[in-house]
Amino acid sequence: MMRQTLDEGLPLLGLDLPEETRQKLCDFARAVVKQNEVMNLTAITEDDQVAKLHLLDSLTVAAAADLKGKTLIDVGCGAGFPGVPLAIACPDTRVTLLDSLGKRMKWLEEILPRLDVSARCITARAEEAAGEYRESFDYATSRAVARLNILLELTAPYVKVGGAVLAMKGSAAREELAECAGAVKKLGLKLEDVKEYPIDGASHAVIVLRKVSSTPKQYPRRYAKIKQSPL
Prior knowledge:
The chain is an alpha/beta fold. Helix content is 40%, strand content 23%. Strands 3-2-1-4-5-7-6 form a seven-stranded mixed beta sheet, with helices on both faces. The N and C termini lie far apart (43 Å).
């Protein structure tokens, strides 16, 4: 059922992936569901829902931007979405997975080589790792981490000028975008596009924000501060 749902959903994203890649995507998703029995990774465990809400949802990023030969960081990757499906679907993209939960990252470090998936795993808080990896990626992406005005302060510092933040959002994408015009400007970003993809009758959006100038050094602030007074 998972594979069938994946196969049916790919054309709607304008993607055509090789047989081996589709199989590997399902293998990773099944590994997540299995590990979920002993570790809290996902509330979504039904085959067809996993295909729609984890795999196809993650792949909207590959549909929204040309990742070929680029570097991408998944900020707050959780169980590995969207970063791992992107690493599988775009093997020549250098993917970095970032999350503060050590147990989760340790599991990803163990499972990915077994599935022959190449991605670098970093255990750190987004606002703390930004110093070391500042403006060193073509793309930063994230899903379900925070509202857009908070999310942009956590992701923009990682992106080099000329690159883009690819923010994954649901049906409230434009509403969230409207409330963070100030943040977009302050962080050196410029709205390029909002790409929407229908998955299971719901809109899955990728907001493409181009980095047009360096993010000022004072960002990101401490998380408590970001949350307390979003840009």
